[in-house]
Automatic annotation (TrEMBL):
<keyword id="KW-0408">Iron</keyword>
<dbReference type="InterPro" id="IPR051263">
    <property type="entry name" value="C-type_cytochrome_biogenesis"/>
</dbReference>
<keyword id="KW-1133">Transmembrane helix</keyword>
<dbReference type="GO" id="GO:0005886">
    <property type="term" value="C:plasma membrane"/>
</dbReference>
<protein>
    <recommendedName>
        <fullName>Cytochrome c-type biogenesis protein</fullName>
    </recommendedName>
</protein>
<dbReference type="GO" id="GO:0046872">
    <property type="term" value="F:metal ion binding"/>
</dbReference>
<keyword id="KW-0349">Heme</keyword>
<keyword id="KW-0732">Signal</keyword>
<dbReference type="InterPro" id="IPR038297">
    <property type="entry name" value="CcmH/CycL/NrfF/Ccl2_sf"/>
</dbReference>
<comment type="similarity">
    <text>Belongs to the CcmH/CycL/Ccl2/NrfF family.</text>
</comment>
<feature type="domain" description="CcmH/CycL/Ccl2/NrfF N-terminal">
    <location>
        <begin position="42"/>
        <end position="173"/>
    </location>
</feature>
<comment type="function">
    <text>Possible subunit of a heme lyase.</text>
</comment>
<dbReference type="GO" id="GO:0017004">
    <property type="term" value="P:cytochrome complex assembly"/>
</dbReference>
<keyword id="KW-0479">Metal-binding</keyword>
<feature type="transmembrane region" description="Helical">
    <location>
        <begin position="128"/>
        <end position="147"/>
    </location>
</feature>
<keyword id="KW-0472">Membrane</keyword>
<dbReference type="InterPro" id="IPR005616">
    <property type="entry name" value="CcmH/CycL/Ccl2/NrfF_N"/>
</dbReference>
């Protein structure tokens, strides 16, 4: 046996073969994890609903486009394939087929999930503050800077004139 094999077991040929096989199996496992689909492959993005009236179909489609999926980032119920979105689409379908109008469906969803469920929330003082708040902070900062600069300009006295400067001023003024 090689004397280096005792100190360096990876130089032993059978051990090297096992490590190469383990490395290849690890690579194969990584490739399979990368290539395999991540989620449920049987989830559908939009389940078509059967209505007798085309007005109800239009109302249903409008509602699922205007309501936000609470799980997904910035997707409507129509675009989302999350399980909660499917449940909410089913609830919207049930309410529309029972004769509820758009406002009734929206108010039901808002009562359960808050105004976050609406893509276009109503304009209230809170939403105005959210949209105009940053602009108001920028304007307040600008006004503060203008007043600060004006106050500083008025508070710093000019340096006294030297003798030659004083003579040239008096000469210009005609004294």
């Amino acid at each position: 046996m090689n004397s280096n094999a005792y100190h360096f077991p990876f130089l032993n040929p059978p051990h090297r073969a096992r490590s190469v096989a383990g490395f290849l199996l690890s690579c194969l496992l990584c490739i399979l994890c990368i290539v395999s689909p991540g989620g449920s492959t049987n989830a559908t993005v939009f389940e078509p609903r059967e209505f007798d009236d085309p007005i109800l179909v239009a109302r249903y489609r409008t509602l699922i486009e205007e309501l936000r999926c609470l799980v997904c980032q910035n997707q409507s119920l129509a675009d989302s394939n999350a399980e909660l979105a499917a449940d909410l689409r089913q609830e919207v379908y049930r309410m529309v087929s029972d004769g509820a109008d758009e406002e009734a469906v929206k108010s039901f969803m808002v009562s359960r999930y808050s105004e976050y469920v609406l893509y276009r929330p109503p304009v209230t003082m809170v939403t105005l503050l959210l949209w105009l708040g940053p602009l108001l902070f920028v304007l307040a900062g600008f006004v503060f800077l203008v007043f600060r600069v004006r106050h500083r300009a008025n508070s710093i006295p000019p340096p006294p004139l030297s003798g030659t400067e004083q003579e040239s001023v008096e000469k210009l003024l005609g004294r």
